[in-house]
Amino acid sequence: MNEFIQLAYVGSVVPDDSEYHNEAFSPAGNMFQENLLAGLQAAGTPPSLVLSCRPMPAFPRSSRLAVRCSRGRLSCGIPLSLVPFINISPAKQLLLGVVVFLRLLWWGWVHRAAKTRIVYTFNLTVPPALFTWLAARCIGARAVASVNDINEPGANVPRTWPWRLDYALHKILLPRFDALVVVNGAIIDDFAPRSRYVCVEGGILPEMAAEAHLEGARKSNCFSVVFAGRMKAANGVDVMLQAIAQLKGEHYRFVFAGDGPLAEAVWRAASEDSRIEYHGCLKVSDLLPIYKQADVLINMRLTKALRTRYFFPSKLMELLASGTPVISTCPAQVEEEFGDFLFPLKRETPEGLAAAIRKVETAGLEIRREMGKRARAFMLEHKTWQAQTGRISALLEGLAGEVAEGRDSCR
Predict the structure, then answer these.
(1) Nearest 5 degrees, angle CA 176-CA 180-CA 183?
(2) Are residues 40 and 173 in the same domain?
(3) One domain, residues 173 and 137
(4) 344: closest CA among 353, 336, 355, 335?
(5) Same structural domain, 82 and 186
(6) CATH number of the CATH domain containing 276
(7) What is the pTM of this model?
(8) Tens of pLDDT along 1-47?
(9) Residues in CB range of 128: below 8 A, 6 or more apart
(10) Which of 363, 319, 362 is closest to 341 using CA atoms?
């Protein structure tokens, strides 16, 4: 444990229990934060305070008008405090910010003797990072932000004043943080080109990288295609369903797993086409056997129909670690960094996806197996959460003056 650093974490992580699962809960974002905190703890930089907010749609989408403070504990054993809020926007965001600000002031006083105090905030929107940044400055702490996505008004969110204000605050605040952890380099290039940073797209746990068993699909004379993730337009669900209609043959098997606004469309397709299976939302432990039995996995994050310059599909890390070959679009640095370990998809249309699936099918079992094995080996060597959080921990220690300062790349 680093005895010179006191770390306070502000985010939206909650225990992965059913009581927190609703339309505002992000499985990918929650898993990212859990693994991040567990990795920092293992790397010797555990947080002494974790402040979080319960995921909940604002009233009237949720019937609850107020949420009380409560406590919880993550699977890695780290305790957290869930801050209270009035569930009506924008009062919700303001109250969250004020409560977090006051809690951080108290934390700073309690740990005033520490050589270095660091306030680490996950994303800038909820709780509002303006308050965490101000609190860090008030107590003389270093401010670090993890930025996993930035919404662009008129691109992937409406051009309403709340989204325009949120985007403007990213422009103003990001260059003022002492260090950044980002999922792709475009965030640095466009918002904070002079900032110190590391690029962490996500990570894998070693148990995710079990050997795939492509022989099972071959013996069953079935070609299995798996689409796992949030069922929403940005993930190309509509494109996938239209591509399936173009793939003729009873030997195809299409497996969907996940929930979201387009789940009903997937259910309807499954009821009309016996080749389609829909499993709903599954935990990673339940998805791994499905990955192992597949011939190819699909990552269909759109980049042309929707502008997603400041996103990275974290699900891709999980897919590449499976040992099963992956067809993927090329958002962010996907082609540059992972292009040798997947089948890149440039034509983000039903015709393009159907052609890519046929190409992988006709490539043969040996080529698919070799691609999956190389991807798995790369992920185990470079992209485990132990390796990724080790880099973040080194960044935090650098703020304490224990290692030399410098910029990092997205490799």
Answers:
(1) 135
(2) yes
(3) yes
(4) 335
(5) yes
(6) 3.40.50.2000
(7) 0.90
(8) 567 899 999 999 999 998 998 889 988 899 999 999 999 999 999 99
(9) 93, 94, 96, 97, 169
(10) 319
